Amino acid sequence: MKIKQIQVKNFRLLDNATVNIEDDLTLIVGKNNTGKTSLFEIINVFTQQTHDISFEDFSQSSYRIFKKLYKFYKEYYLVDINETRKEKSEILILKCIPKIKLIIQFEYDIEKDSLINLSEFITDLDENRNDASVLISYEPKESLNLFKSFNDKGELIPWLKENLRLFYQLKCYAIDKDSEFRKEIDISFKNKIKQIVSFESIKASRNLDDVGKDKSKTLQTGFSDFYKESNKEDNSNVEDLETVLTDFSSKLDTKYKVVLDDILKEIKNFGIEPHVTIPTILLKSEFNSETILKNNIKYYYENGEIPLPENYNGLGYSNLIFLVLKVVSFIEKFKKAKAEDKAEFLTILIEEPEAHLHPQMQQVFIKQITKLIKETNISVQLIISSHSSHIIAEAGIDIDKGFDRIRYFNKIDNEIEINDFNNFKHKDNDKETFRFLKQYLNLHKCDIFFADKVIMVEGVTEKMLLPLMIDKVAPSLKNEYISILEVGGAYTQKFKEILHFIKIKTLVITDIDSVDASLPQGKECRTDLENAVTSNSTLKDWIPKKITISELNVCLTEEKFDGNLIRATYQIKESNENTYVARSLEEAIINKNLIFFKSEFTKEQITKKIKSYFTLINQHSPENLENMTCWELRPKSSSAKTNFTFDLMTFSEEETGLKWEVPLYIKEGLEWLANNNTPEI
Fold this sequence. Notes:
The chain folds into four domains: 2-21 and 33-186, no CATH class; 211-313, no CATH class; 451-586 and 664-674; 594-656, no CATH class. With 681 residues, the protein is α/β, with parallel strands linked by helices. Helix 7 (218-229) runs antiparallel to helix 9, helix 11 runs parallel beside helix 12 and helix 15 (460-473) packs parallel to helix 25 (638-650). The protein starts with a strand and ends in a 7-residue tail after the last helix. It is globular and about 110 Å long. It has a six-stranded antiparallel beta sheet with strand order 2-1-4-5-6-7. It is built from 27 helices and 21 strands. The protein is 40% helix and 17% strand.
């Protein structure tokens, strides 16, 4: 038995969210403020014994519906004298009034699973079906009392914030996912759900610190929890400990009695008796092994000759052990539960395990808990939310399952959209590309899943210079999480499908890469050569699907888009006065900044402030330098390109009084990327 799907409606950021759950591990990823925590919160709030639901838990879109329904209530329900129409109006209001809903769909194996606990939620007799769904709904108690009680007492939303709890309640239904049928479950529904699935949670925010005076005693708590859930009855070491504690308690009781007798004698001397009768008092020492472990055992780390206490060890290690212990404790608790409290399976919710784990520890954690769960003989589903590329690489990109474990939460036009990578059909259509994506994202980075925007570049030069160029022409991008992917021109289009799937705004910066079509080998050439064509596969096969340089030079802006969110940019003329089109990034920078590069520097300035490529330029005489073109000045070898990049990175504009400008094609692209109100193309 397992959870197949979870649906959430009208809860915080989740207006209408559906999350399919994997049999083993489901990874919830996405940038900040996309509803990942909301998913975990509603599961905990709606399935635990105590719940605290407030008006703030309703999604923002619910506010508008409340207002519209109240307006409808006043205009139609209150004034309509026709009882039939009035009744229809009431039914409509009750149907549309916002309700917070959590729907859990279970799937079972009719031959292997016991259906005793689930039977009350099974709503069909079709032997070909193996599903059952639970709806937990926070809804109005009675008809229209909410609106009747408000009756224009100020503003509706502030009034609802203060009074909603008086009119709403939590109810549970067994529902049929394929019909409108529902059956109400009695008020003990939470206990009934707990007999089906045991939810356990590890939250992201823990009171942990790695300072010397830390009192949280992470491992002390973790080992205590583990001990509490372990099988104490069948553990000989635990029995020995209990025996020792019992003997010690007996010896202490004798000493307590002597002390107590002395105290009672002193009381008599103060004249309390015979006016006050003092009952017989016994002092008993009781030692609980759990309390002993929690409060009287300190954990140390070996460190040469002097063992160090727990709080002197690195926080990453402490948290790693703590998290593993918590998972082990959940499993032990599940296995040792009494028959009447036993659930059919266990679901563990782990929120941002990377919160206090170093990158290496994150991968170790995922490896350990997945290994641990595989070795148990119980049914366990893990649902993990994360912002960590390392956790995605370890848990979300599997050789066999690919990206199937990933659920990508994204906010588009203020609505949360959840992309299930089981629906990423590209894995079936183009296996080679899919294999490349798995290898690239696994070996390099997975942070496109958490980024606000993406910039794709061909090589290290663009990647290293981008921060400088962003600072010059689009500084607002520094306030966003930009994932920069260095993929090379030949592989850029392999990201096409995944970028469309996760719907993230992407700028592709590439080179026009002109070559002489009249030569068999396609030797690189100036862009103004008559037979020049591009060798860049991105430009030829993806955006804008043009081959000749002349075609690329006259491309309209709208031709450089693939949909609304992906734009390619490549070298263009700088102005009506400077119409030459560069071939590469380095040549484009020189073309844009000829005056800058031909400026005269003293030998002292060259030595102190600038490096090899600038020196190379200044080896020319002023007369020759003045007549040289950017094609002639461009760095040609990889080492020269590297020097060129570092020269720009280390050049001090402030000290020299000289500034270089960003080529127009990159400037336009970065400005588009920075504009969060980009019109549709």
